[in-house]
Design goal:
Structural class: alpha/beta
CATH superfamily of the largest domain: NAD(P)-binding Rossmann-like Domain
Oligomer: single chain
Number of strands: 10
Radius of gyration: 19 Å
Order of helices and strands: EHEHEHEHHEEEHEHEHEHHHHHHHH
Helix content: 40-55%
Bound molecules: NADPH dihydro-nicotinamide-adenine-dinucleotide phosphate, 1,3-dihydroxyacetonephosphate
């Protein structure tokens, strides 16, 4: 296969978001995509039929622009950018064969909306500690955008955040196409923490919906959630930011209300009486909010921010308290 000349982008991950991001990148003329995914059957299917059989299987994957690799060490060779699109709980395992030398001189882009469980650190901090990547060479992809709507080419917006705008500006150009507008911003940590928090809130929305609460309650839940997110993000990274912009509020709204949200769906099953184990087995996809709830709960032991919604979700998921009873308590403190 002969590659076009141009920007080389390694994509790590084989799920719905990796597949959607590759679709967006393929809209550019001058890109070479080097794709790693773990599932050998899927690799063979993609090479032969140019579709991912397991996620967004309708998306056509342009063979001239995409090369699929079995090994991460091969996928990142010569790449200008390395996009991480594996759920946070599995990223260490996915990148276990890579060392500092493999990622030297490359820009790392996290598309992950989660933290490393147990260590409770952001993906960008983990990548810079593990691979010596400078924060200025790190970006995150955020904003309200579900992979399923990208697959349908529905107009979407992304926020590309970095500590310095040049890195974000360059990458935003690669993520902009007929149906996606990507905008840079310089709030790496704020955007990352807000994206993690909104998954917990979407879980809470799903739980309450599963319990039979209506739109009136959910509107109050989401308004209170925005304050909860704002208070925590400010405690963790104090600076001026416009929390009503789409990178923060927009992402909260789409995850809390969308039919495509994994976190909302997971919560809904819990509200309807599924155990955590059964809900996880039922869902082929990953709800990051499950892991995030524990990470944020633990981080907040140092910060003591008032996080009533996160605490309610923690009691349900990790202390096995009855969702109905926990939400009875929560509804007394919402305003
Ligand atoms: N989907 C979306 O719309 C969006 C997702 N994101 C974020 O993107 C990240 C990736 O999520 P997404 O693509 O949706 O994931 P999906 O739920 O679509 O897919 C799950 C992925 O995780 C892999 N996986 C599951 N278990 C393991 C394991 N034990 N070890 C290694 N890999 C495993 C699966 O591989 P396999 O198929 O081989 O099991 C698959 O590639 C998340 O952080 C998510 O928050 C961000 C914005 C939008
Ligand atoms: O972050 C997302 C949309 O912006 C995806 O959220 P879910 O993982 O809940 O589907």
């Amino acid at each position: 296969m002969s590659f076009l000349n141009g920007t080389k982008i390694a994509v790590i991950g084989g799920g719905s978001w990796a597949t959607a991001l590759i679709k967006i990148l393929c809209e550019q003329n001058n890109v070479q995509i080097r794709w790693w995914l773990r599932n050998q059957k899927d690799i063979e299917h993609i090479r032969k039929y140019h579709h991912n059989p397991s996620y967004l299987s309708d998306v056509v994957l342009q063979p001239k622009k995409i090369k699929v690799f079995e090994k991460t060490t091969d996928a990142v060779k010569g790449a200008d950018y390395v996009i991480l699109a594996v759920p946070a709980a599995f990223i260490e395992e996915a990148l276990q064969d890579l060392s500092v030398k493999h990622l030297q001189g490359k820009r790392i882009v996290s598309a992950i909306k989660g933290m490393i469980p147990g260590q409770n650190i952001l993906i960008t901090d983990w990548a810079s500690e593990r691979f010596g990547i400078e924060l200025k060479d790190t970006c995150v992809i955020a904003g309200p955008c579900h992979a399923e709507e990208v697959a349908l080419e529905k107009q979407s917006y992304l926020s590309i955040a970095s500590t310095e705008c040049p890195a974000a500006e360059d990458f935003a150009k690669l993520m902009t196409c007929r149906y996606v507008a990507a905008n840079p911003l310089d709030d790496l940590y704020g955007v990352e923490y807000a994206a993690i928090m909104k998954n917990i809130i979407a879980l809470a929305c799903g739980i309450t919906h599963g319990l039979g609460y209506g739109d009136n309650f959910q509107a109050v839940l989401v308004s209170n959630a925005m304050q909860e997110i704002g208070n925590l993000v400010t405690a963790l990274d104090k600076r001026e930011r416009n929390l009503s912009s789409s990178a923060y509020l927009g992402d909260l709204l789409v995850t809390a209300y969308s039919q495509f949200s994994r976190n909302r769906l997971f919560g809904n099953m819990i509200g309807r009486g599924y155990s955590v184990k059964v809900a996880q087995l039922e869902m082929k996809m990953i709800a990051e909010g499950y892991y995030a709830t524990k990470s944020i709960y633990e981080i907040n032991k140092l910060y003591h921010v008032n996080l009533p919604i996160t605490h309610a979700v923690y009691r349900i998921l990790y202390e096995e308290q009855a969702p109905g009873m926990v939400m009875d308590d929560l509804k007394k403190v919402l305003k």
